Amino acid sequence: MSVGGTVYQLSQEMACHIDRPRCGRIRLSKGRAPRDAAPETLDEAVHLRMDERDQDFFAAAKYL
Amino acid sequence: MIRPNILLISADQLRADCLGFEGRGVKTPHLDSLAGQGTRFSNCITPCVVCQPARASILTGQLCRTHGVHDNGIDLPPEIGANGFAGAMAAAGYETAFFGKAHFATYHTFQPTGTPECIESSASFPETWNGPYMGFNRVELMLVGHNWFLPERPPRGQHYERWFHADGHGDEKNALYLENAGDTKEAAQTWHSKLPVAWHNSTWTADRAIEWLRHARGEGPFCAWVSFPDPHHPFDAPEPWSRLHDPAEVDLPAHRTRDFTGRPWWHEAVLTSEPQGTGKSVEIRKSYSRIPVQTDGQLREIIANTYGQIALIDHNIGRILIALDEAGLDRNTIVVFTSDHGDWLGDHGLILKGPMHYDGLLRVPMILRGPGIPAGAANDQPVSTIDLAPTFFDYSGAEALLAQHGKSLRPLVEKPEATRDFALNEWELLPSRTGVRLNLRTVRTRTEKMTVDLTSGAGELYDLERDPNECVNLFDSPESAGLRHRLESFLASRPDDIGPSRTQVGMA
Hints:
Distance between the termini of chain A: 29 Å
Oligomer: heterodimer
Structural class of chain B: alpha/beta
Largest sheet of chain A: 2 strands, antiparallel
Strand content of chain B: 5-15%
Radius of gyration of chain B: 21 Å
Number of strands of chain B: 14
Largest sheet of chain B: 8 strands, mixed
Number of helices of chain A: 3
């Protein structure tokens, strides 16, 4: 698996777990942040890079 | 009158000035909002600059030479802990709960001690154990919380560690945690951790508190302590939080070179002496608890990473406050945010903590929000986290079960003209930490600070208005003799109830 250029070797069971992280219903303000919904893919769940999605996330959460 | 709920939220090793509203550029929108909705104290100090004594003092409302936890590695006796603010609130009919890092007892012990926080002894606690512990009827604990020591594999560990390893993939998560996803210029103990945020212990701490607020608490008033284990070193913020602050843009301390001239003797001695103890504990103290001088570029990496850890805590505090709101509890809950102690974070060329009580280490955040607490107010009177227990009693009507050294903050909150003269700090430092034994007493007024080693008589005194970077030690200055005498009288006013020295059961 490659996330933002970083390669990870993860078992299928762990990948499934990441797909259902406990923070899947994060809410950061009165409005809903982009990650409020449970991630659909491993790449989406393991948000390991400051990419465009992170920019959206941080902006919605008022960190940017 | 409806008794208010109490929600105490704490960080570990968080300086008072590392919040957005303090002006250092740390991104903490939720804590900024909390401060805007409540009252903050800009001169709140810790009663001791290391974890266990400070936490025991918050719980008991007593200075550390009275409850006896005068250094790390000493356990708070359960019979005292059970009569702290949680026990008193429970006796008054409050539901009490604790989530996160407690550190009322020692993790790394010489022998098993039988406490739920002793790593060796934790294996004997069943998964169904949830307290009571130190007056809290329900607890969900993590051990250590600073992943320099990775989450223990079952059967060791408590609630966080068991959850972390429950799917059988804890080792894979730990491998991710230890990887550095970027270049941190070889800054000490600093990396962009690849641990997914879903498994970070700040996330878990908030998750457990939110779950309890939504589904597990009863109908009566509650008193809960939510205790985050960061931004304590190592500086291991997970991506993307580790990249939220650009190292090139963070502020550096105005005075960041080591300066032993004019300082008391122990400033240099604690950095050069050999810690006492066994080989393993000495190695930990030398490699984990001492950070060598860093370049400006490395210090920027450390500060930016620390800010990322703080922002992740802020994010999770936001989640908790929203859950409080959604449960309809926000209007009748007093929310308090503080820390056990601060961090030098580069001041005077120092990082982490030790017996140099510069303000970055001594001063901690203190925010109160709730019914009857003015919004947007700032108070600069010298207060302490030992004032929290009597504050909770004042608002709830609960009766203290122990003698209280602290005083309620409520008069300062409700009467702007109310004043305090000073706050106290003390630390009887064991030689296993630095190789030096000290018996320190510190007094902090609104504008001055003095620290004295009672054994050697040496000391330091700073005028914080004229010398905010604490560069000129006035302790032996003839012109400051009157000030020194006044501060000594404050130190002498400490209640005469110092207890016996307690046995060190683990690494201090």
